[in-house]
Amino acid sequence: MKKIKNMEEYYNVIKNNDNVIVYWNTLWCPDCFISRRFLPKLIEDFVTFEFYTIDKNANLELAKHLNIYGVPSFLIFKNNKEIGRLVNKQRKTYDEVKGFIKDIINK
User: Fold this and answer.
1) Tell me, what's the pLDDT at 89?
2) Could you list the residue range(s) of the whole structural domain that residue 34 is in?
3) What is the pLDDT of residues 27-66, one digit of tens each?
4) CA-CA distances (angstroms) from residue 10 to 7, 55, 75, 85, 95?
5) How far apart (Å, rounded) are the C-alpha atoms in residues 94 and 35?
6) Three-class SS of 17-55
7) What pLDDT digit, counting tens, does each position of 80-90 carry?
8) CA dihedral 37, 2, 90, 65 (to 10 degrees)
9) Which of 18, 29, 36 is closest to 76 using CA atoms?
10) CA 67, CA 9: separation in Å to the nearest integer?
11) What is the tally of structural domains in the chain?
């Protein structure tokens, strides 16, 4: 999974890729630790999407700009437009995230 390090990189990724899933997290978040364990499986499930990770604490300005107040969170982009987001501070399961992504991309 590729890392996004700043706002400029974030917008370049969205602009230059058709299918993107951005995983917002922090190093200190126990729920992020849990969700990181199933990210490789999600990447295998959605091979037509590029997966990126971004540390919310290192990008607070961007997080505020995008209303990312809870982690772990997932944003889905298709053709340079956000089509869905799972943003909250609740622990997420593999099945929950996979179902969310499937529902969003199959609309």
Assistant:
1) 82
2) 2-105
3) 999 999 999 999 999 999 999 999 999 999 999 999 999 9
4) 5, 11, 12, 16, 27
5) 7
6) CCEEEEEEECCCCHHHHHHHHHHHHHHHHCCCCEEEEEE
7) 999 999 998 88
8) 170
9) 18
10) 18
11) 1
Helix, strand, coil percentages (3-state) for the chain, rounded to 5, are: 45, 25, 30
Tell me, what amino acid is at 55? D
Rounded CA-CA distance 97/107 in Å is 16
Question: What is the structure's pLDDT at 6?
Answer: 95
Tokens at 64, concatenated: 């505020």
Mean pLDDT for the chain?
A: 95
What is the distance, to the nearest Å, from the Cα of residue 91 to the centroid of all Cα atoms in its chain? 14
Supply 39's token pair: 């990210």
User: What CATH number is given to the structural domain containing 46?
Assistant: 3.40.30.10
What is the structure's pLDDT at 38? 97
